[in-house]
Amino acid sequence: MTDTETNSPATDQPVQHFDVLIVGAGISGIGGAYHLQQQCPGKSFAILEAKADFGGTWRTHTYPGIRSDSDLFTFGYRFKPWTGPPIATGEQILTYVGEVIEDNDLGQHIRYGHHILSATWSSQSKRWTIVADAGDSGEVQFSANFLWMCQGYYRHSEGYTPRWEGTETFKGKIIHPQNWPDDLDYSGKEIVVIGSGATAATLIPAIAAESAHVTMLQRSPTYFATGRNANEVADMLRELDIPDEWTHEIVRRKVLHDQQIIVEMSRDYPDLVKEELFNGLREYLGDDYDIDTHFSPSYRPWQQRIAFIPDGDLLKSIADGQATVVTDHIEKFTTDGILLKSGRTLRADIVVTATGFNLSVLGDIAFTIDGVPLDFSETVTYQGTMFTGVPNMAWVFGYFRASWTLRADLIADFVCRLLQLMDTKGTSMVTPMLRAEDDEMKLLPWVEPENFNPGYLKRGMHLMPRQGDRAPWQHSQDYSKEKVELPAANLEDGALVFK
Ligand SMILES: Cc1cc2nc3c(=O)[nH]c(=O)nc-3n(C[C@H](O)[C@H](O)[C@H](O)COP(=O)(O)OP(=O)(O)OC[C@H]3O[C@@H](n4cnc5c(N)ncnc54)[C@H](O)[C@@H]3O)c2cc1C
Known about the structure:
Layout: E1 4-7, E2 14-23, H1 27-39, E3 45-48, H2 57-60, H3 72-75, H4 90-103, E4 110-111, E5 115-122, E6 127-133, E7 139-149, E8 173-175, E9 190-194, H5 198-208, E10 213-218, E11 224-227, H6 232-239, H7 244-268, H8 270-285, H9 291-295, E12 307-310, H10 313-319, E13 323-327, E14 330-334, E15 337-340, E16 345-347, E17 350-353, E18 366-369, E19 372-373, E20 381-382, E21 386-387, E22 393-395, H11 404-425, E23 430-432, H12 455-460, H13 479-488, E24 496-498
Parallel strand pairs: 2-3, 2-7, 3-4, 5-18, 7-22, 8-17, 9-10, 9-17, 10-13, 11-12
Antiparallel strand pairs: 1-2, 5-6, 6-7, 14-15, 15-16, 18-19, 20-21, 23-24
Helix pairs in contact: 1-11, 5-10, 6-7, 7-8, 11-13
The structure holds flavin-adenine dinucleotide.
Flavin-adenine dinucleotide (FAD) is lined by residues 23-29, 48-51, 56-57, 61, 68-70, 75, 115-116, 150-152, 156, 199, 363, 365, 396, 398, 403-404.
């Protein structure tokens, strides 16, 4: 089936129609397009992407040292073997995704420079109408039977920077890593990086040697794991000349198996896991280093993603004296640095605010369903991918702790199965609806804070859909469960209403 073009009665502008519109050409959108092409070869589709190129997260973030914190055997797609070291640079990830586009001729389906502004559902025509800002071409319209939301979870235009007193008096530069200037000269400069998440841990060793000194200023510590950027099983299989496809699958299983053990251990024996992580740090920092103050968070391991430090690079920078960790609170900015609550001051030429993201719910697109603006927070999720009262739409929200792409692949299978079922049934509209038996169901937050509590979710939880206390209105964030449950989910148990 090919796409068709009609004119909008309202604007007389051409409206291109597709069976499926994919929003976003990041790792999820490109993966979605691959699966759709493989599993539903008759469907016409396009990918609308706001940026001028593919890659999403890996295109937006250009700060020195940008790399994954997951291994690429699981962060890579299940269908394309990863042949590099487990932790990959942003550039290597872009090359990998680029090869998927190239090998599968997906480029012809991507419309770059199309920033979607609104999506309007009509139950009469059983279609979405999408308006996108296409830059010099102005606003353009598309229509689609199904919307596949692969727009990620945060606003790409700017990161989250808290407000601090005195920033206007500071004479140096304040930079968020999400908007890293290409021409930033940090050689010989005093740098303070605020934050100690994966971004700070990646950035600091990449700039420490060239700058005068880097201070990692954190309010509270983060867990870090260290190890070689290598996978012994992969190395052995490669040495034996085992086909890349086998190596990829075997190493994926091994990584997932090991991670499952760590997750269970973190839950059941958090102190033991803590001590293991600390032993890894001591190897670089020595026994006298104050690990309790600077590397011992108040939450238990795995309540937030544990940042992996390949080859201990951040710790080497600290041990070498090129970087220092300060655990304190900011009182205010001064003309030449930061005054801390303890009374100490940190001199800085450049302050980098590695303070996180702004949650973006559904790509900041204005959704309307039959004339009524959609308040996403009033919906309940179906399997963590569709939403009550929202027809013909799925959102790829990956795993927080395990690799995002594991879930992107699973949801792609789910969407393709749903589209195939709709064709078999001869229906063109599917909407999740709470059933009579769900009437008294307890509604819970999108994610239980006890289970996972990063800042961007805490700040934005009130904007997110809710989940129920039972299937299919939950998402467990547990790959080992979902890889069995999602493919087996009964799509005809009444929770999905077909018309
Ligand atoms: C620095 C960093 C490192 C990370 N490392 C890891 C990691 O190691 N492992 C892991 O599992 N996860 C990691 N994550 C999380 C990461 O974002 C996801 O894993 C994954 O890259 C998300 O892919 P995505 O395609 O779903 O979304 P994104 O990468 O966010 O891509 C979404 C795309 O949609 C486009 N878009 C959004 N809104 C619109 C709109 N209205 N109109 C048109 N286009 C739109 C955007 O321009 C973008 O290109 C990391 C995140 C960051 C920021």
